[in-house]
Write a structure and sequence with these properties.
7 helices, 7-stranded mixed β-sheet, 6-stranded mixed β-sheet, Metallo-beta-lactamase, Chain A, alpha/beta
Length: about 250
Amino acid sequence: MTSVEILYIGGPTSVITLGGVRLLTDPTFDAPGEYAVGSRTLVKKTGPAVTAAEVGPVDAVLLSHDHHPDNLDTAGRTLVGSAPLVLSTASAYDRIGAPVRALPTWEHTEVGGVRVTAVPALHGPKGSEPLVGEVTGFVLSGAGLPKVYVSGDNADLDLVREIADREGPFDVAVLFAGAARTPLVPDAPLTLTSERAAEAAVILGARHVVPLHFEHWGHFTQDGPTLTKAFAEAGLTDRLHLPEPGETVRL
């Protein structure tokens, strides 16, 4: 089976290379700074380990959502404008237009030899959709290729179970973690906790887990050490890969 390579750029941003196809997740290339989001302020603490210019051409952007700057910042928007294809939600298409293409849940498209399927995601607890907005995840698959799940900002394990039932098991799970918290939903995390990330790995049958979006922003309440601890306590240390920013993991 062909390997998958994941270049970790920082935050939710990575380049996943599968079957020679290069897919960029949630582009964030700004320097550190503050972003006003309604009455809230999101603080970016660390810039990207790789610049947009250094990333080079990609075949498509996998954009989980466009309306939060920690998933699509100013420099990311510039990149999206010149990308050959951006797969995202219907609301992202409504706000941005081309080259964004809305990919409805459970529908798929082909990018090179990779099938990209949109899968459900919920950016917080059940019932928070009107507050947090529409988000999506992705499944990457193809003949002779590893099957990869990219969670986006999903916090709901019931959706993970549905995805596993329909699309699993997975060779690689790219899980957005960090237990993000903001005043928008003060009583619950908006992304997977470290413990739920470990549980998701089991549900998905994932042989390898590469967490993203657990550091570099001030609203994360958990980090790499809590992921390491949670996976160790679950007996899953051998599945967890925590690359340094700028490092490529080959699986």
